[in-house]
Amino acid sequence: MGGYLFSVFVLFAWVPHIYGLWPIPRSLETGSVALKLANSFRITANVPHPPSDLSDAISRTVGHLRTDKFERLVVGRGSADSETIQHARELKSLTLALAPGSPVRSISDEAILPIESRSEEYTLHIPSDGSAASIEANSTLGLLRGLTTFEQLWYFFDGQVYTLEAPVSITDSPAYPYRGLMLDTSRNFFPVTDIKRTLDAMSLAKMSQFHWHATDSQSFPLVIPGFTEVAAKGAYSSLMSYSSKDIQDIVSYAGARGIDVLVEIDTPGHTAAITESHPEHIACSHASPWSQVAGEPPAGQLRFASSATANFTANLLTAAAKLFPSKFFSTGGDEVNTECYANDSQTQSILQSTGQTFEQALSGFMQTTQGALEKAGKTPVVWEEMVLEHNVTLSNETVVMVWISSQHAAAVAAKNFRIVHGPSDFFYLDCGAGEWLGNDVSGNSWCDPFKSWQKSYTFDPLANITPEQSHLVLGGQQLLWTEQSDPSNLDSIVWPRAASSAEVFWTGATLPDGSPRNVKSALARLHDFRFRLIQRGVSAIALQPLWCALRPGLCDGDS
Amino acid sequence: MHSIIFLYVLVLVPFTVSIWPIPRQLSTGSTPLKLSKSFNVVVNMHSTPQDLLDAVARSESGLKSDSFERLVVGRGSADSTAVHRALSLDALVLSLDSGRLIRSVADEATVSIASRSESYTLSIPARGQARLVANSTLGLFRGLATFEQLWYTLDGDKYLLNAPIEIADEPAFPYRSFSLDTARNFYPVDDILRTLDAMSWVKMSVLYWHVADSQSFPLEVPGFPELAAKGAYSKEEMYSVNDVELIIQYANTRGIDVVMELDTPGHTTAVGFAHPEHVACAGKSPWAKYANEPPAGQLRIASNATVEFVKRVFQSVLTMMTSTMMSTGGDEVNLPCWEEDEETIDVLNKRNIAIGEALNEFVVAIQGVLKANKITPFIKGDMILTHNVPVTNDTVAVVWQSSADAAGIAERGLRFIHQPSNYFYLDCGAGDWVGNNILGNSWCDPFKTWQRAYSFDPYANLTEAQFPLVLGGQMPLWSEQSSSENLDSIVWPRLAVAAEVFWTGGTLPDGTSRLANNVTGGRAAFSRLNELRYRLVDRGVKAIALQPKWCVLRPGECDVDA
Predict the structure, then answer these.
(1) Where does the Glycoside hydrolase family 20 catalytic domain lie (chain A) (predicted)?
(2) If exposure means fewest CB atoms within 10 Å of the residue's CB, which of A134, A286, A438, B304 is most exposed?
(3) Is A392 a domain residue?
(4) If 0-12 CB within 10 Å is exposed, 13-18 middle and 19+ buried, where does residue A214 land?
(5) Chain B contact present for A238, CB below 8 A
(6) Could you write out the DSSP letters of every residue in B179-228?
(7) Domain containing residue A81
(8) CATH code (residue A67)
(9) Which positions in chain A touch B2 (Cβ < 8 Å)?
(10) Which residues, other chains included, contact A333 with Cβ-Cβ below 8 Å and sequence gap of 6+?
(11) Nearest chain A alpha carbon to B283
(12) Do A190 and A328 lie in a common domain?
């Protein structure tokens, strides 16, 4: 018999362990045993008097495990695993427990603790023999984070919910406590249901902060007790405003999902909408040409040199602060336009009569407003210009948001302020959609190009920061300014890109196997996350043709 | 004493209508008018085609269910007194010019592109009955679309402020289209139907369906069920024969012709999932050497068996169509793919021909199938400009790489449609979708804004003698980064720009140039497009916001020079 020499070339696709966890845990071990959820699968909280929001979180997880119906992203989808699932052992239960001595507080309470004292770490163990899985944490917030991880481990096929990677052993905690998303609800309005859906998606990526840029020059949708006229006249309509009840609804919905709501009332710029109710407080209101006195139309800024205006603003902020249980409160402070005030005779006469410079008056205004916030028990948050461009006195506790450029973080750190990264060159979700101003045929967006998920994902929170300064970095966020967005495209412009920074700030620089975090291995997991969002009704955008999503690595630039 | 300088902006509120695309001839008055409670549309025609009756019923129900309030500060309430006092319009009466043949909208929408009749006149007096007259049911259908855009809602009343209105309208170009790629990612039938509805509201005349590509082959082809069975992403992500029939019929009855594109010989890797024998360099790595994007793979054009196979596939797809037009594609063929393919090399050596000759023969063979069936062939511009393949004289070229390519096609005397990537590509500007490319941007950066697209001149660089070669144009959505989730938001309202560029043409009804300075300002096209956007949202199409609502309510105040 002649011998046949078969030379068989088989392409072994590199199958990543843990297909879909996003953000990927800090420490992770997996096996290769299939396990499926028993029909009787249940989650038990081994917690005395479990807070109702923990019980609700458990119910949501049990519900999602049944309704996600997400088939694994491989050629053939779930059918590829059909045989394996048949013979898989069954997992009957997951038990949640707090570490001995841990206080039992609601998730909502844990989520709004001062940012340095939040406890989000957890451990998760899933044995391969079908015996009970367990999540242990030091707080209910940690248990919630563990439940979120647990939800992402499972795939669906033909009525079965399964994993291929038992046993699973995870020890996890965030690299940074501030993992946020900013939404502007002033340029265009977003109904409460849109915000809640966004909070659900944020929670799935373990995000911890919703930065609500609630008001701006175009509209003032926030109804503030004692100042109801501001929204009554400054909102687009009564239907396009957030009542106290709406705010409470959003805050408690967020809190139960481990998310703190940092509200921003931007001052003294970005306030033209206040002129509708209080023209006496607004300089250069609706002035033309707008481009001489404002970053965008309409022009108008608080007449901060006026003590009446400073007091009005401080009282407004104090009243608003009561609506939000968060420790954080932002007074904004970006893009103050000096030309607006140079042309405002009232400002000029006040400066002359008091003998103050522009900067001195601004510092006085800031002390009044920041003082009011501190009295209300809040930690003030400001945009970077307040420390980098203006000579104003701020409390050491102030948190500074870097937005103009990632290059500016170092200067903020040099002044020893805590930092939230939101640089336009990495994290602005609105960039790249062209000019929205009329009569500008060849205009592009000011922060071109579009920030792809890859670009955001490569952000280094510690670039140009010394090891001694690294404690100043609280984390960061992606931001949606809404000149060209509204409910029609909220999901598609935000998701899944906003999840990039969630992993940057949860996982940190290193993958669980010790290698550097990188876009090549992240893509398959981000596809997984995107398809999970869709299963939950979030219209996240496609990152690639489905052909590529089913074949990790084959659509890389170098493959 | 303070000396206070107030800078007031005087707002000029244009009381023109906000019709999109704006009619060729238009005069308006300033009398408020509302629809009477008993308002109805009357068709003054014996044996009215069913699809016209259906269109009338949709118009009547659209007028009732639209809840769109006029875009001014205070919205509809600003008009409350005027509406209260307005006289009523009792009916809209539709009729054909005497002696015209009565054919269905669908039949009129699929006659040859050169002989379609879309003109109409619409006359709305200050009270009484409005009249809509046309030469065809298709013209009546276009007039209904105009009529629907005239009305605003307040407290259950439908009103306008500018009666009497006289409109005489017809398109500048017959071909006004959207090209949809359903291969990179799949779109359910419902998404396509919703898109067709929105297209019909802006009088678009063609859906150019880029149905298959290298990533998937979702089209069920009679006699070749294996193509979709193995080439579609899944059996849920394919278009059955019934789906295709539904889509075409839905389109045709809305005045839209469906031009199918089977892209050949490139962009065909997915054919190889069922027929590996017909595809060269399938899945070959590195893809960047053999294709513009992954996965690599092209039809084995030199193989006689492959040519015969492709001819039979085209012959079969033709049976599903109602159009007189079909595209054989032809973009981005990659020579190294064939040059390293052993089967192809063998054939070329045996016949002692070069690959270019094989390509010529392939195109002639496929175009031959279309010709035998009296179908007008479309082909991508690079087949002519780059590969210089011989095409039939009635071929319509799709100019896509650059707007500058149009002149080269015109020099050859071929008809063409404009689809320039530097003006009309809806997908540009969303970053690179290829993995492991951190700083990559989209190849056709930047994003094409509506203003950029609006500034397109269909006659640029053409001689007047060449003008008749321009059939119109289309905006394409390539779907590498799009799917059902963002279809509406990436397409609308930008697609409507193509509708106006090719309906209204170079001149606005007041005689000024559509390409003049200031036309994209808030006191001109921008306010009308904002209105269209809000009307689309009102009808369930998730069109994107073009500006903060503050700007939308104050036309002109957010212009760059305001």
Answers:
(1) 176-508
(2) B304
(3) yes
(4) buried
(5) no
(6) EEE-SSS---HHHHHHHHHHHHHTT--EEEEE---SS---B-BTTBHHHH
(7) 2-172
(8) 3.30.379.10
(9) 345-346, 349
(10) A266, A267, A268, A269, A366, A382, A383, A385, A386, A390
(11) A554
(12) yes
Q: How far is it, in rounded angstroms, from Cα A219 to Cα A187?
A: 7
CATH number at A222 reads: 3.20.20.80
Which of 242-301 (A) contact B at CB < 8 A?
A: 284, 286-291, 296-298
Nearest chain B residue to A531 by CA distance is B485
pLDDT in tens, A150-163: 999 999 999 999 99
Chain A residues 432-471 with CB within 8 Å of chain B: 432-445, 448-455, 457-458
Same structural domain, A145 and A230: no
Residues 490-529 of A with CB under 8 A from B: 491-493, 519-520, 523
B490-536 pLDDT, tens per residue? 999 999 999 999 999 999 999 999 999 889 999 999 999 999 999 99
Structure-token match 């060269």, residue found = B280
Domain boundary among A508, A525, A545: A508
Which of A345, A488, A555 lies closest to B5 in CB terms? A345
Burial class (CB in 10 A: 0-12, 13-18, 19+), A5: exposed
Q: Which of A467, A491, A508 is the last residue of a domain?
A: A508
- Whether A439 and A487 map to the same domain: the answer is yes
Given the residues A229, A335, A339, A389, select the one marked as catalytic.
Answer: A335
My answer on whether A162 and A246 are in the same domain is no
Tell me the pLDDT band of A19, cut-offs 50, 70 and 90.
confident
User: Rounded CA gap, A326 and A382, in Å?
Assistant: 15
**Do A189 and A163 belong to one domain?**
no
Residues 316..345 of A with a Cβ closer than 8 Å to B: which?
Answer: 343, 345
Cβ pair A547:B479 closer than 8 A: no
Instruction: Phi first, then psi: give them for residue B98, nearest 5 degrees.
Output: -60, 145
Per-residue pLDDT band at B317 (split at 50, 70, 90): very high
DSSP state of A196: H
pLDDT tens digits for range B85-121: 999 999 999 999 999 999 999 999 999 999 999 999 9
Of B372, B388, B384, B381, the residue nearest B403 (C-alpha): B381
Name the residue among A530, A559, A534 with its Cα closest to residue A543. A530
Cβ distance of B184 and A545 shorter than 8 Å: yes
DSSP A326-376: -SEEEEE-----HHHHHT-HHHHHHHHHHT--HHHHHHHHHHHHHHHHHHT
ipTM associated with this complex: 0.94
Number of domains in chain A: 2
A144 in the same domain as A223: no
Residues of B annotated as catalytic are 332
CB contact under 8 Å between B550 and A187, yes or no, is yes
For chain B, how many residues are written?
562
- Collapsing DSSP to helix, strand or coil, A45 comes out as strand
A95 and A30 in one domain?
yes
Angstroms from A287 CA to nearest CA on chain B: 5
CB contact under 8 A, B234 and A218: no
Residue A147 has pLDDT above 90, yes or no: yes
As given in the structure block, the two tokens for residue B151 are 């009305």
Nearest CA-CA distance, residue B524 and chain A, Å: 9
Q: Do B489 and A492 touch (CB under 8 A)?
A: yes
Q: Tokens 């020499």, residue?
A: A5
Looking at the complex, report in whole angstroms how far the Cα of residue A71 sits from the nearest Cα belonging to chain B. 12
Smallest CA–CA separation between A289 and chain B, in Å?
A: 5
Distance CA A383, CA B25 (A): 52
- Min CA distance, A551 vs chain B (Å)? 11
From the list B75, B548, B561, the residue facing A187 with the nearest CB is B548
In the chain, the amino acid numbered B360 is: N
Instruction: Identify whether A533 is part of a domain.
Output: no
Q: Is residue A536 part of a domain?
A: no
A553 interaction partners in chain B (CB closer than 8 Å): 435
Would residue A527 count as lying in a domain?
no
